[in-house]
Amino acid sequence: MMQEISVEDWLARVPPLDRAILIDVRDIDEFEGGTIPGALHVPLEGLLNRIERVVPDHKTPIVTFCRSGRRSREACQRLAFVGYEQTFSLRGGLEAYKAVVVP
Fold first, then answer.
1. Domain extent at residue 62
2. How confident is the model over 31-66, as pLDDT tens digits?
3. How many CB atoms lie within 10 A of CB 3?
């Protein structure tokens, strides 16, 4: 099931987010331009081909993000479709993160 989560809630790391894997679903050029510390890069294009190697356990919570949130919601839907049980889209994406962490 896909849920949106605010940057503040994600940063608070409340369960189950305390053990969530953070996935940047943007293109490689965007990722190389800067990302959230600790994020793994698995682009939306090809996500389903690579996700099993990155997160083999379908019960592991996953937080996806992109620039503003559209692609991360799509990523969550795709992940839920193939059986991932806890997918969260970071509301507002990297832009929201920057607004909270780098005011």
1. 2-101
2. 999 999 999 999 999 999 999 999 999 999 999 999
3. 12
